[in-house]
Specification:
Oligomer: single chain
Shape: elongated
Number of strands: 0
Largest sheet: none
Low-confidence stretches: 1-13
Helix content: over 70%
Strand content: under 5%
Order of helices and strands: HHHHHHHHHH
Length: 325
């Protein structure tokens, strides 16, 4: 191996070790402050609650059906069991809204803490006194955020898998693949909000503003856009899937829907997640329906956009101002 090749390999190894060291410091801080443990606990509880609540509802319906058929006169036709064709992953339907409302908020909190930690600790100047570029600094922050969310999502996946096996007493490779894809989609959705908070944490000079701006954008994405995209249906953001509505027969509302709905990331996530767990998604007259691949592409674009925005803010980071006002 030539000296030049050895030198390049050494530089690449050095850059990788620097990124791993900085990302590890952020994750250790999250562990030391119990932020990561708390977020992990919340996700595990959400996964258990989602599975148990849906399973309990199905059990109650089964009991009611069994009692009802005993009251049918002999010789009369017995109606089919309404849950006979229910997919195994249907008990995940509550998890969709938990991810939309709670998971995205936790991602914002993690991104904010990771993005603001160094300036709050007044260590930014010390870090950049070493051979570290803004790009290295940013990628380390992204690695810490992505690893933290990945760890949380992985444990939520395991919890859901165990809950499904225990409650449904079944196991299938087919629904295991869909379960994995469901959490991958959830991870990409939440990562976008985490990157948004990370970017503003690096940009803003006041901690309150660094958290407030992503929260305002969260309200717009989670509540405002879905209500516009679903023809101002007031409870649309609080359901895994939107109830069918015919108000989109209005030309004006159809026009608003066609403009807003493609940017409604939470609705794209809910539609894609619902299809992955085999929940039928009712659509209103005049509503837009996308293929699964297009919905997945829109979610990826959401993460790419927030990554690019955060990188833009990081590239203009004022190293000399390492404290918040």
């Amino acid at each position: 191996m030539s000296r030049g090749s050895q030198s390049n390999a050494t530089l690449e190894a050095g850059a990788s070790s620097k990124l791993a060291l900085m990302a590890g410091n952020d994750m250790r801080f999250l562990l030391r402050e119990n932020v990561l443990r708390l977020a992990l606990g919340i996700f595990v509880v959400m996964a258990i609650a989602s599975s148990y609540i849906s399973w309990s509802s199905q059990t109650i319906l089964t009991t009611m059906y069994q009692e009802a058929i005993t009251m049918i006169p002999p010789g009369s036709p017995v109606p089919p069991f309404p849950l006979s064709q229910a997919p195994a992953l249907a008990i995940l339907k509550n998890m969709i809204i938990y991810v939309v409302l709670i998971g995205s908020l936790l991602a914002i909190i993690l991104g904010h803490i990771i993005g603001t930690r160094d300036r709050k600790a007044k260590t930014l100047r010390v870090l950049f006194s070493r051979p570290i570029t803004r790009g290295d600094f940013f990628l380390a922050k992204v690695a810490a955020l992505a690893s933290s969310l990945g760890l949380i999502t992985f444990f939520a996946l395991l919890t859901t898998l165990v809950s499904l096996v225990i409650l449904n007493k079944t196991f299938s490779v087919a629904w295991l693949g869909n379960l994995f894809l469901f959490y991958v989609v959830s991870y990409v959705f939440m990562l976008g909000f985490g990157l948004l908070a990370l970017g503003f944490g690096l940009r803003e000079q006041r901690s309150a503003q660094a958290l407030l701006i992503p929260m305002i954008l969260w309200i717009v994405v989670i509540f405002a856009l879905p209500e516009l995209g679903s023809a101002l249906f007031p409870t649309g953001s609080l359901n895994p899937i939107l109830p069918p509505t015919d108000v989109l027969q209005s030309p004006a509302l159809q026009f608003i829907h066609k403009i807003v709905y493609p940017f409604s990331v939470s609705e794209q996530y809910k539609a894609l997640s619902s299809s992955l767990i085999d929940i039928n998604v009712p659509t209103g007259v005049g509503s837009i329906t996308y293929s699964r691949w297009l919905e997945a592409s829109l979610l990826v674009l959401w993460s790419v956009f927030t990554f690019s925005l955060a990188y833009y803010f990081a590239s203009r980071l004022e190293v000399s101002r390492d404290t918040y006002e």
